[in-house]
Write a structure and sequence with these properties.
- The protein is mainly α.
- It has 42 helices and 16 strands.
- Strand 2 and strand 3 form a beta hairpin.
- The longest helix has 30 residues.
């Protein structure tokens, strides 16, 4: 908030402004004193930084509200909401009478007619200021569907993703590279200025003829018509603008990335690339923007992999089965009582200016929109999913081994776990459960469903409110930092179990502008969410059953009631709320259910939790999270993953669940394994969900305790002040500096987990398949044996007395067993399906490991991973795993081939050949990945090219460059708009990379010892022999003569080398080649049960503060040094070397300096630099003005391409209808 708009600034004049400044200083000091993540024991003056941001921590009255985040967990990440929170039933909060519309909340919040970006409404209906965040490039993005947006002529993608910051053409920057809404005349000026004198004369002459034919006079400086320019391009053998866009679309349709296309043009047709330079640069910039929002994916890749489209084609919502009573309309709460209390506001939505209520009981349109999801839920429930059945039946409960119980103050004898119904063993369950089954034949399922039918309520609420209890204070720092799809509450007073679903994920179903494929994804998300929450509701119903007399059926034997209620003290303790599933480490039954079906559903946009706040809730592009994650309680001694993945769903995968044919054919054949079957046509992309940054230990080892605290605090303060882009950019830079070591740590830990079946089930599933193959071989031999009677006689001789059966029964069982093994969807095919899914996921994980290894391996270094002793290294382990599972895949192909040739299976031979093709594909992928790994590892220089990167088909093209590359343009934009004190602290942050210990504190290890400290991994439990570090590179014998720069991994002798021409915006040149970005956790379901600054009186101005909005504007000579002004002689920003803001540096620096914020336009990976291109354009324009023919001045691109849209016609942005 500017001073002029500060409360009290106007009335009191200068005195009022002074009072407000004192208030700001006081509030900033309170923030520093009370906020745990701001270190007070380092010599750094936080006051100017916090004063500049404190206005984003005020309520609507201007009162300061101190930020108060949940404490960090052991990994240094923000704590997540508890999995189960018991809270009051909202209905109990409303008085019997009152004004029904006194309290109102719009879902989504931006549909409120009174919505303003400058104000945020919190889950508790409080208002907080958001004035500073309006400068952030992403945080306030929202679908451009408000009535006021129509004047900006939003494109189809802008209706979903919002109009991008600073855009005046209604574009979102999210459209595919071939979109018709891209300006086909973007290069018109560029092309005109590159014409020769003769070509220019000809163009003016031809254009003049056409102007005269039309009776028109050309505007000054626009004497050349676009169609004439197209003709000249064609005559020179170059693609016209329209033809070029068609070629881009064709290349994308063939799976080629834009980066690949640019490189091919550069090699084969550089003149065409130059002619369309502006178009390509704009498209590539847009793709970096898309990668930031989509977890590394581009819109091109979403379409190529069928993850997201705007299509209405081939979407069949065919299910017409009845809706189960537990999910039918009478179960939904009639919300007419809402609106009388702040804790239970009236919930409404606004579609095209019409207000409707989020009340399924009375809103027919809403209920109709929910039909596909409700029918899918009912269909799934009618098939009796094993995990749901196990939750309802307490005979599946068993105490876990004492060594797995890590509670310090247990209030029950043991922790409980549950197994699948097929694994029930009454000898292992609790005595009371065993007695109830054996003596009384107690039916747990029937009683649980009876309780649910009496107390279950379905409801709708705001996803940002579901993460917190109704009586919990809002998070003042960022009240919208956590979004959840659903929650489940149990209230003992009202005897209600309430499942609440976020209306945000239902809202797209009601929007007529959204396509069928988008609505199908929403329906799938709703179904998955309600099933997840229903698992929690079952557990709560069981809790009621073992706790309360009212939950018992009338007339029940008192002995039965006593036994049932005795289980309360056995199964329910005050800490661990839910039972563990088999050997899984977490108590989260909702995730157990989802994972057993299709996986834990999440939004791809959710990878960047907390921003953009209005887009995170939209289930536009969906994926499945790897499981288990690190949330919730953890079984003592259970292994945990370090790297979490997200694998996007294809639309084909989701669509099958809404087709009758899937349930009638595939499901009937395979059962629930069919639900998890991966698609055959497209490999699933693999995105990294976590880790999101460096660990505290790694930071302290590298920078020392104080510097590490400073670096982490800067990012936290920016993020909590909703400066999300700047926070993400700085976090990415810090990660990239340590990237090589960080990945070494992560991969070492993951390799140690490969033997853990829960985390990596492929080995176990292959063993299970081979065991069944052996049994099937024996059965097959018996089935076709000519001497079956003799075989039967031998079999009888091996049986115990009383186990022998007649030959007729023995023969019948043999026939049935043979059929069950070899039929379509039989025992063998089900095991093949399990191996297929696990192999598919394993290949994705290994592709990412190999890719990241090759990304950070420096040139001039090689390692012979096939040499003797290499198997003891981490890279050797990776190679061994590739080779091992390649052999297994080849063996399986041969086994399937032999089975498929049996004459008795001719009717289903095509099904067996389909399985053969799947595993041939797996074998080929292992083979290709092994070759890539060997070639890349054993080649010292020049191998890691775009062609090689493109061979990793499971990884998005966003992994080809730094995470900071995605941020840098937007970070630069937000940097120059930030207050001066914020820019100064950012400059201080970047300066830390010049000296690992500038705060005069030593790291826990010296620089030379650092790599050994990382290799030791003392904080990781060792399970079996550990491989040598992944980055123990072996220099090849024929290594060329090297200069003084060290080749081995570790910090260089000079902490940071001088910036090169290809250095990244703000990144020291020693940074690794890849990174992970600052993100929070994806949307979840929740069961709600000293360095000192300069003290100079003169405010120092940042070197980059001279740029206000026009990046090509000459700098203000009063705002920079003479050296700075000379650097801008060309008129555009250039990298500033050895030029820091004029102030006392944090500490003496070693080596050469770096730019605090290098110009984002100064370097491109594959494109001509902006500087060179601009100079070429200027020179061409200068020469052109001397040409005859009257064509003078600067050419501006025509805007005819938007006229049709401005008249009301619409173009599909991806070329689809």
């Amino acid at each position: 908030m500017s001073a002029s708009s500060s409360p009290g600034a106007g009335a009191g004049g200068e005195a009022g402004e002074m009072d407000w400044q004192k208030r700001r200083e006081r509030d900033a000091q309170e923030w520093i004193d009370t906020c745990y993540y701001i270190p007070k024991d380092i010599e750094y003056d936080w006051r100017p930084f916090c004063e500049a941001l404190v206005d984003n921590h005020r309520d609507a009255k201007g009162d300061f509200v101190a930020p108060s985040l949940p404490p960090r967990d052991s990994r240094g990440e923000t704590g997540k909401p508890k999995d189960v929170i018991h809270g009051p039933d909202p209905a109990a909060l409303a008085p019997a009478k009152g004004e029904d519309w006194k309290y109102v909340r719009y879902i989504p919040a931006w549909t409120d007619p009174d919505y303003r970006e400058e104000i945020i409404e919190t889950p508790g209906l409080n208002l907080i200021r958001n004035s500073l965040t309006t400068r952030d490039s992403l945080y306030n993005l929202r679908p451009a569907l408000r009535h006021s947006d129509s004047i900006r002529n939003p494109t189809e993608y802008a209706l979903r993703f919002g109009i991008a910051a600073d855009r005046l053409d209604g574009r979102s920057r999210m459209s595919p590279s071939w979109s018709e809404t891209r300006n086909p005349l973007a290069d018109f000026t560029n092309q005109v200025n590159r014409l020769s004198d003769e070509e220019r004369k000809l163009a003016v002459e031809l254009s003049g003829r056409r102007f005269r034919q039309r009776n028109e006079i050309p505007p000054p400086g626009q004497e050349i018509l676009p169609e004439v320019m197209e003709l000249l391009l064609s005559q020179r053998g170059l693609l016209t603008n329209r033809a070029f866009i068609a070629e881009v679309e064709k290349a994308a349709g063939e799976g080629m990335s834009l980066d690949q296309m640019v490189q091919e043009l550069e090699r084969g047709n550089p003149e065409t690339k130059t002619a369309h330079r502006v178009y390509l640069e704009d498209a590539m910039d847009d793709q970096d923007y898309q990668r930031l929002l989509l977890g590394g994916l581009t819109t091109d890749e979403l379409i190529q992999h069928n993850i997201y489209t705007l299509s209405n084609d081939e979407v069949a919502m065919e299910l017409d089965n009845p809706i189960h009573p537990l999910f039918d309309r009478p179960t939904w709460d009639n919300c007419e009582w809402k609106g009388r209390a702040a804790e239970s506001p009236k919930l409404v939505y606004n579609i095209n200016g019409i207000r409707e209520e989020w009340n399924v009981a009375t809103n027919d349109t809403l209920w109709e929109a929910l039909q596909p999801a409700m029918r899918l839920i009912s269909k799934m429930f009618s098939k009796r999913p094993p995990v749901l059945e196990a939750l309802m039946d307490l005979t599946t409960r068993q105490p876990i081994p004492p060594e797995s119980d890590g509670r310090l103050n247990p209030d029950t004898p043991s922790l409980a776990m549950y197994v699948l119904p097929e694994d029930i063993d009454l000898s292992l369950t609790y005595p009371a459960i065993r007695q109830l089954k054996e003596v009384y034949n107690y039916d747990w399922r029937e009683n649980v469903l009876r309780v649910l039918s009496d107390v279950l309520i379905l409801d709708i609420d705001w996803g940002f409110a579901l993460a917190y209890q109704a009586d919990t204070e809002d998070l003042a720092d960022d009240a919208l930092n956590k979004f959840v799809y659903g929650s489940t509450w149990y209230d003992e007073d009202t005897r209600r179990i309430r499942i609440r679903i976020a209306g945000d994920i239902i809202w797209p179903l009601l929007v007529p502008q959204y396509s069928k494929s988008e609505k199908m994804g929403c329906s799938f998300t709703i179904a998955s969410t309600i099933l997840h929450e229903f698992a929690h509701a079952i557990h709560m119903a069981v809790e009621a059953l073992v706790s309360w007399d009212w939950a018992q059926p009338p007339g029940q034997d008192p002995a039965v009631t006593k036994l049932v209620k005795s289980l309360r003290g056995e199964l329910y303790n005050s800490d661990w709320v839910e039972p563990l599933f088999k050997e899984y480490p977490q108590d989260e039954v909702g995730r157990d259910l989802e994972f057993s079906l299709w996986g834990c559903t999440s939004s791809v946009i959710g990878l960047h939790q907390g921003y953009p706040r209005h887009l995170v809730p939209l289930p536009i592009a969906l994926g499945v999270e790897s499981y288990p994650s690190a949330a919730g309680h953890w079984r003592q001694g259970a292994p945990g993953p370090v790297v979490l993945y997200l694998r996007p769903f294809s639309l084909d995968y989701m669509a099958k669940f809404f087709r009758k044919s899937f349930w009638d054919e595939e499901f009937e054949a395979y059962g629930f394994p069919a639900v998890r079957m991966r698609p055959d046509d497209l490999p699933t992309m693999v995105l990294v969900s976590e880790p999101t940054g460096t660990s505290i230990r790694m930071d302290r080892n590298t920078y020392g305790k104080d510097t590490a605290a400073f670096l982490r605090a800067v990012v936290e303060i920016l993020s909590d002040s909703r400066q999300k882009v700047l926070a993400g950019y700085l976090s990415a830079l810090k990660l990239e500096v340590q990237y090589r070591r960080q990945w070494a740590t992560w991969w070492r830990h993951e390799i140690g987990n490969w033997e853990e079946e829960t985390l990596y089930p492929l080995g176990a599933s292959i063993n299970d398949l081979k065991s069944h193959m052996d049994e099937a071989s024996i059965i097959n031999e018996l089935y076709f044996a000519d001497d079956q009677p003799a075989r039967y006689t031998y079999w009888c001789s091996q049986q115990a007395e009383g186990d022998v059966i007649p030959f007729v029964e023995w023969e019948k069982e043999l026939v049935e067993s043979w059929r069950e093994y070899f039929r379509y969807g039989g025992w063998l095919m089900q095991r093949l399906l399990a191996v297929h899914n696990d192999m598919h996921d394993d290949l994705g994980m290994l592709q990412r490991m190999v890719f990241h290894y090759l990304s950070v391996k420096p040139d001039g270094v090689a390692m012979y991973i096939r040499a003797e002793g290499a198997e003891d290294t981490a890279v050797g382990r990776i190679y061994h795993r590739l080779a091992n599972f390649l052999r297994h895949a080849e063996d399986i192909v041969q086994l399937i081939g032999r089975v498929a040739e049996q004459p008795e299976l001719v009717d289903i031979k095509d099904k067996w050949l389909q399985w053969e093709a799947r595993f041939e594909s797996h074998a080929e992928q292992y083979r290709e990945l092994s070759k890539l790994f060997v070639d890349g590892t054993e080649t010292a220089v020049g191998w890691w090219t775009i062609e090689q990167k493109a061979k990793f088909k499971r990884l998005p093209s966003g992994d080809w460059k730094h995470i900071s590359e995605r941020y840098k343009k937007m970070a630069y934009r937000d940097y120059i708009r930030a207050p001066a004190a914020v820019r100064d602290t950012i400059d201080d942050y970047l300066r830390q990379f010049q000296n690992p210990n500038p705060l005069n504190t030593q790291g826990e290890f010296g620089l030379e010892e650092l790599e050994d400290a990382v290799k030791s991994l003392t904080d990781i439990d060792r399970r079996g022999p550990q491989p040598r570090p992944i980055f123990d590179f072996v220099v090849p014998p024929t290594q060329p003569q090297q200069d003084s720069q060290r080749l081995e991994i570790g910090l260089p002798s000079q902490p940071i080398a001088s910036p090169s021409s290809d250095s990244v915006f703000g990144v020291p040149s020693e940074a690794g080649r890849r990174s992970s970005s600052l993100r929070g956790s994806p949307p979840r379901r929740v069961a709600t049960h000293r360095v000192r600054k300069s003290t100079s009186a003169t405010q120092q101005k940042s070197a980059f503060s001279k740029y206000v909005s026009n990046l090509l504007k000459a700098p203000d000579t009063e705002m920079g040094s003479e050296e700075a002004r000379n650097l801008f002689a060309s008129g555009i920003p250039q990298p500033i070397l050895d030029l820091l803001p004029r102030g006392q540096p944090l500490a003496p620096t070693r080596g050469q300096g770096i730019a605090p914020f290098p110009n984002p336009y100064a370097s491109r990976i594959v494109m001509t630099s902006e500087a060179i291109a601009f100079q070429e354009q200027q020179e061409a324009a200068r020469k052109a003005t001397q040409a005859s023919g009257g064509a003078t001045g600067v050419y501006e691109a025509q805007q005819l391409w938007r006229e049709k849209r401005l008249k009301g016609d619409s173009d599909e942005e991806d070329g689809q209808s």
